[in-house]
User: Which sequence fits this backbone?
């Protein structure tokens, strides 16, 4: 970020804003963490462990995830900690590298659709009128679409790649943050301090940045956690159906290849081939859920967020 | 109010239109066309299967040389005649393939809706009555943690536990293959036995939603004045709960049940894959694997339409149950 500073004056301003808000976010994060319940703290720690696993995957694994490094279907032992799959690839490596896939997709989808949808919602709520009406109609239709079946069909047609999966998921998840950001903006807009600021000659952009965005931000943050867990589930589901990116091993792909292995249920292989990706997926989703519940609880007195119907 | 309901139906129509448009345009924005096939002979040289003349003939035969909007109209017209095209894999009309598998899906989806609604209401009522006691807290915590496990992972766990480890339930299928039944009772038993785990999975995945909704609405309802009035009249605690509190709290639960069918129709694809249950979800999976595009589109359409119908029904039932809505 620091190298960017001397690119242009414009970029410098952006970096300054980013630094400010990141500082503010980290402060508020620190405050929120101390308010977390035990579950919430477990959730945060669990997510941290999985992030560390993903980041340091090359250091904590002995073998590359997509190379044949052992016999086919070796049981867990000292050579391969969690054993190997049918091609002789190390399961522990696949789990660690698979964390990258889940986290990337979860975070990318959540941030793009959370902030993108949020920005659209804030703008529409602030501008109002026909723009707002049109956006609401689009949001209504988007939310009424059956997302998972459409997801399957679109990725079956467009071909499986990480980028496609992210794009399609964003397309289906921006509507909720947009709607909530819009209704928040509508409520905030009526406050007298905003009207006062306007009367003092504040430009719309200033009001949006200084008054509305910081207010909507916490809600968006909670939504982002929810969206990321949805995205992780959707990716795992698609990969489980055989629609994952074939060039990378994600947890869903592991489930797919394990359940696709004929007669796996009549052998003991499922114990080390099927259980690890299953448990780590559930663990990740539970951690995300704990965090999101706690954040909701902390924010609740100020804001009411409707959990998905 | 009238206006509101019109816009609701209008929204459903628009949604249906969007789905139809996606269904229609997706194959057409893919590169290539169905007749520009080439193949390779033994030596690896490309062999052109069709001449340009033949290609043009087939293009006009299938109406692919017409402008896109005319093709779309033809597509809509065929849909009205329930003509969804022919499945590449099954070599029969897509509508027949769907009709063959849809009953299984309907059975497990409706079964789970009933089970999760009934169980959720009972547990929710229990929890609301014992509010702030240990049993309520314990149940809440357990249910909430439980709700975050997506249905197909839950299904895998149940399958591994009950079918693989304990060998109590079948691993796959909806009936015992090549079975001869001595009577309809035995056949029904076999079907229920095979449907048990899929239905359990779907119901458990939906249970928490109903439970929380019942509990929270009941808690809100019990603070209302008419409950106090009912108690003041000297009605028994049981009458107050069932006739006054639960009756009002059930309204949102009914709505929820309708939407639940929609959610399950989406999730059932994965759950059926886990249990190799021969509904449309499993068919969709095999269609995806086999790139049977007409079948994929047909199944999407059926799922989407059934979700929209459920939403419409919920709206209708709701206004019947709650006279305040239908003014």
Assistant:
């Amino acid at each position: 970020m620091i190298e960017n500073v001397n690119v242009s004056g414009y970029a410098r301003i952006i970096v300054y804003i980013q630094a400010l808000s990141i500082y503010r976010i980290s402060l508020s994060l620190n405050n929120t963490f101390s308010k977390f319940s035990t579950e919430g703290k477990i959730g945060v720690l669990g997510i941290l462990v999985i992030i560390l696993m993903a980041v340091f995957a090359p250091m904590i694994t002995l073998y590359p995830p997509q190379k044949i490094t052992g016999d086919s279907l070796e049981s867990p032992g000292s050579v391969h900690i969690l054993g190997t799959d049918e091609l002789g690839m190390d399961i522990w490596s696949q789990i660690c590298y698979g964390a990258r896939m889940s986290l990337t997709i979860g975070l990318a989808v959540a941030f793009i659709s959370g902030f993108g949808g949020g920005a659209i919602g804030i703008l529409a709520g602030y501008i109002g009128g026909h723009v707002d009406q049109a956006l609401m109609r689009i949001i209504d239709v988007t939310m009424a679409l059956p997302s998972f079946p459409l997801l399957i069909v679109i990725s079956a047609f467009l071909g499986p790649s990480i980028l496609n999966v992210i794009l399609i998921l964003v397309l289906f998840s921006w509507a909720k943050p947009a709607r909530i950001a819009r209704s928040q903006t509508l409520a905030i807009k009526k406050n007298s301090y905003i009207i006062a600021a306007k009367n003092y000659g504040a430009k719309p952009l200033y009001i949006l940045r200084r008054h509305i965005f910081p207010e909507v931000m916490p809600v968006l943050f909670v939504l982002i956690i929810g969206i990321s867990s949805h995205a992780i589930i959707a990716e795992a589901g698609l990969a489980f159906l055989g629609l994952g990116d074939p060039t990378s091993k994600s947890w869903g792909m592991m489930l797919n290849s394990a359940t696709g292995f004929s007669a796996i249920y009549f052998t003991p292989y499922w114990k080390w081939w099927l259980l690890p990706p299953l448990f780590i997926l559930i663990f990740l989703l539970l951690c995300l859920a704990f965090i999101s519940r706690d954040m909701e609880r902390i924010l609740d007195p100020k804001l009411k967020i409707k959990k998905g119907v | 109010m009238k206006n509101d309901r019109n816009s609701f139906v209008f929204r459903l129509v628009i949604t249906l239109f969007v789905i139809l448009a996606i269904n229609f345009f997706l194959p057409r924005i893919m590169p290539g066309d169905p007749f520009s096939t080439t193949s390779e002979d033994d030596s690896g040289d490309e062999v052109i299967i069709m001449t340009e003349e033949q290609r043009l003939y087939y293009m006009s035969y299938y109406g692919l040389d017409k402008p896109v909007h005319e093709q779309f109209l033809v597509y809509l017209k065929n849909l009205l005649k329930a003509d969804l095209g022919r499945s590449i894999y099954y070599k029969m009309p897509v509508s027949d393939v769907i009709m063959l598998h849809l009953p299984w899906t309907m059975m497990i989806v409706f079964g789970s809706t009933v089970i999760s609604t009934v169980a959720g209401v009972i547990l929710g009522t229990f929890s609301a009555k014992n509010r702030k006691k240990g049993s309520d807290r314990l149940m809440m915590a357990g249910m909430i943690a439980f709700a975050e496990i997506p249905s197909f992972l839950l299904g895998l766990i149940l399958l591994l536990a009950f079918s693989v480890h304990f060998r109590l339930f079948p691993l796959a299928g909806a009936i015992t293959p090549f079975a001869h039944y001595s009577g309809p009772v035995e056949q029904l038993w076999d079907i229920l036995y095979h449907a048990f785990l899929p239905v359990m999975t779907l119901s458990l995945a939906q249970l928490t939603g109903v439970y929380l909704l019942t509990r929270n609405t009941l808690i809100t309802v019990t603070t209302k004045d008419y409950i106090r009035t009912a108690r003041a009249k000297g009605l028994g605690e049981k009458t107050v709960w069932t006739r006054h509190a639960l009756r009002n709290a059930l309204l949102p639960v009914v709505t929820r049940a309708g939407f639940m069918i929609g959610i399950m129709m989406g999730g059932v694809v994965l759950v059926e894959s886990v249990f190799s249950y021969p509904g449309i979800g499993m068919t969709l999976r095999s269609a995806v694997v086999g790139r049977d595009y007409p079948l994929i589109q047909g199944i999407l359409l059926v799922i989407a339409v059934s979700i929209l119908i459920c939403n419409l029904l919920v709206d209708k039932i709701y206004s019947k149950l709650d006279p305040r809505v239908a003014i």
About this structure: The interface with chain B takes residues 137, 140-141, 144-150, 152-154, 156-158, 229, 233, 236-237, 240-243, 255, 259, 265, 270, 274-275, 278, 281-282, 285-286, 288-289, 293, 309 of chain A (CB under 8 Å). Residues 40 and 103 of chain A are 19 Å apart (CA to CA). Confidence is low (pLDDT under 50) at residues 1-7, 302-309 of chain A. The domain at 36-306 of chain A is CATH 1.10.3720.10 (MetI-like fold).
